[in-house]
Design goal:
Blueprint: E1 5-10, H1 15-18, E2 21-28, E3 33-34, E4 40-41, E5 44-48, E6 52-54, E7 60-62, E8 69-73, H2 80-92
Length: 103
């Protein structure tokens, strides 16, 4: 949705050292388009909240045209307990798992 926060992981910068850069969704296309692989997708336009990443010593790494990235959308929040419970439940009840083939 418009205004949804996004974190961008810039491939040229190690995110463990440089971190992520924040942004937000500006526009989402109304119609689907097909990717080069033939997968239906929506075109999402975003805006970054800055043009650089910083190391702990305040050294700046500026973003440049053509850099690739991965966008991380927050779609749900779960506690650590919920994540562990789901894994344990999948292990104890494998027939109920969403990844189990149907019979």
């Amino acid at each position: 949705r418009n205004g949804q926060p996004i974190n961008f992981q810039i491939d040229a910068f190690n995110y463990n050292q440089w971190g992520l850069i924040s942004g937000k969704v500006v526009d989402i296309s109304d119609d689907i388009i097909f990717s080069d692989q033939g997968v239906p997708v929506f075109k999402v336009r975003c805006v970054l909240e800055g043009d650089y990443l910083k190391l702990k010593n305040n050294y700046r790494g500026y973003l440049k045209k053509g850099m690739s990235f991965t966008a991380r959308f927050l779609v749900a929040e779960r506690t650590l307990f919920e994540l562990l419970y789901d894994k344990l439940d999948d292990w104890l009840n494998p027939n109920l798992s969403a990844t189990s083939p149907e019979i």
